Amino acid sequence: MTGGVRCLLMRGGTSKGAFFLAEDLPADPAERDDLLLRLMGSPDPRQIDGLGGAVPVTSKVAVVSGSTDPGYDVDYLFLQVGIEEATVSDRQTCGNLLAGVGQFAVQRGLVEPGPQETAVRVRMLNTGAGAVSRFATPGGRVEYGGDTAIAGVPGTAAPVALDFVGTEGSVCGALLPTGRVVDEIAGLRVTCIDNGMPVVVVRADDLGLAGTEPVADLAADTALTARIDALRTEAGARMGLGDVCGSSVPKTTPVSAPRAGGAIATRTFIPVRPHPSIGVLGAVGVVTATLLDGAVGHELCVPPAAGHPFAVEHPSGSLEVDVVLSGGTAGPQVDRSTVIRTARPLFDGRAFPRAH
Q: Could you tell me if 99 and 133 are in contact, meaning their C-beta atoms sit under 8 angstroms apart?
């Protein structure tokens, strides 16, 4: 690796990550993970000797390849790289980095762009779920400039529409992994939901929160983060995830009534660090929960007008999500989820790992 590794650093949604072709990384997972730790600068709280940005939303990796499934164009493996720990986890996917996967595939020659717009069918290997990423490619070139703004990111860029179909790729294997709309865990009423991301939804006021606290205040509240950790650990076991110590899932999202004209207000912990905004699939999960009668958050939600998306308020603004549910003898089913994101490349070149 003295010559470095081909890498495209991209912002996807409100995350930032290193994008690699699978063929440019070792095929052996242990060797791959060792290399990624050295590239990202982990373990180190500042990740000073690598590409990582010292917070979970900037310590991410996307590994992309042509799909082996004829129903998809590309395969996308998401890896969450630990910061202070030498860990590389594939136990969740990332909807924010997904916003850059299609463009990366075009730039690396995996997908032929359309003359005006390109739709890339993505198989998310972490969960087995599928998504379609649609973005502008005028003249057969990816257009990154545009006037779409998303909360948590300065400026504007070209929109990327992410369509998720169904819940067959849920991490836990079911929309309601515990089999119930509401569970009581550690004395708290919670809804454990998995529409592409395991999420534990709890009322903010049940945790003694207003739901409007700044991220820094939440992070400094060690009693709160300890309580969040105990809650998510027990919830993870009930959701079929086993021992989640050291894992970034399930995510815990306290919800409260909206204050800024949205549908629901949120604060999210990954796994115990408060998120500066909210993850794409985390927001999808929260909206899905609010649509279920009797679920935690349902009574707090202010539904939008017909035909309009749900605005999920978070510390940096809001994220718009559209979820369509249908009923059946087997319980609620997700027909479709759609989110609008933006993405852009930050640099394209070679990344150099530190020595062992």
A: yes
The one-character DSSP state at 225 is H
pLDDT tens profile 335-348: 888 999 999 999 99
Residues 6+ apart with CB under 8 A from 96: 12, 13, 14, 15, 57, 279, 280, 341
Residue 272 has pLDDT above 70, yes or no: yes
Position 330: which residue type?
A
Rounded-to-integer distance, Cα 229 and Cα 285, Å? 19
CB 283 within 8 A of CB 306: no
pLDDT digits (tens, 9 = 90+) for 160-215: 999 986 545 567 778 999 999 999 999 999 999 999 889 999 999 999 999 999 99
Please name the amino acid found at residue 24.
Answer: D
Q: What percentage of the chain exceeds 90 in pLDDT? A: 84
**What is the residue whose two structure tokens read 């794409």?**
280
Percent of the chain predicted with pLDDT > 70: 97
Nearest to 255 by CA among 214, 203, 205: 203
- Cα distances from 304 to residues 202, 316, 339, in angstroms, run 21, 20, 15
Report DSSP letters for 115-144, one per residue. Answer: SSEEEEEEEETTTTEEEEEEEE-GGGS---
- Alpha carbon distance 165, 130 (integer Å): 7
28 forms bridges with which residues in the sheet? none
Q: How far is 189 from 331, CA to CA, in rounded Å? A: 20
Tell me how far apart the alpha carbons of residues 119 and 128 are, in angstroms, rounded to a whole number.
19
Two structure tokens written together for 34: 């060792």
- On the CB side of 187, how many CA atoms lie within 13 Å of its CA? 6
Q: What phi, psi does 26 have (nearest 5°)?
A: -60, 140
339 contact partners, CB below 8 Å, separation of at least 6: 95, 161, 162, 164, 280, 283, 284, 319, 320, 321, 322
Q: Is the pTM of this model over 0.90?
A: no
